[in-house]
């Protein structure tokens, strides 16, 4: 006997588990979780609407977006090296005009030996030489800074691809490229290290040519600077001519530097991607070892006993004529 606090009555003891359903004194009742708050006999508040449907492909499923690219680290030197090509072309143009201005002054000096030169022509010549003589070194210095920034970025990319760090400090690269005197040697060393252990022969040749031209340009600059202290008139005139020659060489060296940089990047002088050449084996022209077969001669004996050699008639059309050679 059990007391039920809810129905305030006595509950009979449950029967055996294996008793038939008719002999059990209990029954199972399934109720909703909210059966206490629901009122008995409550009707549906609203009629059922149309069957739900999708007007477009559902987007609430599991998404599988592609992996986002890895963020590129900010490199302040990349912005400086981005103007490298334009600075090199501009440097070549500025030094070209400076060289032409020096040679224009030299021609004026030659004409001044026999006749007077107008004042306005001298003013134009002096102004041109002065302006481009100041602009050209400044332009060259800015271009050199851009090239050093490119060298640092290129070395970082190459050594990162090999899973290593650049063994040289950034300040050593800058000092080796910009300090006068030592910058005649170290830029070639830095570029040679950039090529790696197994360099491309074309890139290695481009670096060697550039290195030799760089040393030659430095020697020309030293000679032109020393020539400015000449005391005689003829030496001063020759110094003007030599300065013009130095400026033209500097313009050519700027173009050579552009070619070398593009060669290291696998491009040509114009900046286009250099196409790879595929070499294939080619056979020599066929040589005839056996002489071509020629139609044989037919020997015909006439009634008088003389032998006559006749060429076999092979002019038949549509069939092959077999030719024979009859021995005497």
From TrEMBL:
Keyword Lyase set for record: no
InterPro entries reported for this sequence: DUF4328 (IPR025565)
Residues annotated as domain DUF4328: 118-265
UniProt keyword annotations, A-Z: Membrane, Transmembrane, Transmembrane helix
Segments of this protein annotated with the region Disordered: 34-76, 308-328
Record keyword Zinc-finger present: no
Residues spanning the membrane: 87-108, 128-151, 171-189, 209-227, 239-261
Bias type Pro residues, positions: 64-74
Protein name: Uncharacterized protein DUF4328
Organism: Nocardia alba
């Amino acid at each position: 006997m059990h007391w039920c606090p809810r129905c305030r009555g006595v509950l009979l003891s449950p029967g055996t588990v294996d008793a038939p359903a008719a002999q059990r004194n209990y029954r199972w009742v399934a109720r909703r979780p909210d059966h206490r708050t629901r009122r008995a006999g409550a009707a549906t508040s609203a009629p059922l609407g149309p069957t739900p449907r999708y007007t477009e492909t559902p987007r609430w499923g599991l998404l599988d977006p592609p992996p986002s690219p890895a963020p590129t680290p900010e490199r302040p030197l990349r912005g400086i090296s981005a103007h490298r090509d334009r600075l090199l072309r501009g440097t070549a143009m500025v030094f070209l005009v400076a060289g032409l201005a020096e040679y224009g002054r030299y021609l004026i000096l030659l004409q001044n030996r026999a006749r007077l030169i107008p004042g306005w022509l001298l003013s134009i010549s002096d102004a041109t030489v002065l302006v481009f003589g100041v602009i050209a070194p400044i332009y060259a210095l800015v271009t050199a800074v851009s090239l050093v920034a490119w060298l640092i970025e290129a070395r970082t990319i190459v050594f990162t691809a090999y899973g290593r760090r650049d063994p040289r400090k950034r300040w050593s690269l800058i000092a080796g490229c910009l300090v006068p005197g030592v910058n005649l040697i170290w830029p070639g060393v830095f570029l040679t290290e950039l090529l790696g252990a197994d360099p491309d022969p074309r890139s290695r040749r481009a670096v060697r040519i550039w290195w030799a031209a760089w040393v030659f340009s430095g020697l020309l600059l030293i000679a032109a600077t020393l020539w400015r202290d000449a005391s005689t008139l003829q030496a001063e005139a020759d110094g003007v001519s030599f300065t013009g020659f130095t400026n033209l060489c500097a313009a050519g060296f700027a173009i050579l530097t552009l070619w070398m940089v593009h060669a290291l990047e696998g491009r040509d002088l114009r900046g286009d991607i250099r196409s790879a050449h595929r070499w294939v084996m080619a056979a020599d022209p066929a040589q005839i070892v056996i002489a071509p077969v020629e139609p044989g001669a037919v020997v015909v004996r006439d009634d008088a006993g003389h032998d006559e050699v006749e060429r076999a008639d092979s002019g038949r059309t549509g069939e092959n004529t077999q030719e024979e050679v009859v021995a005497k």
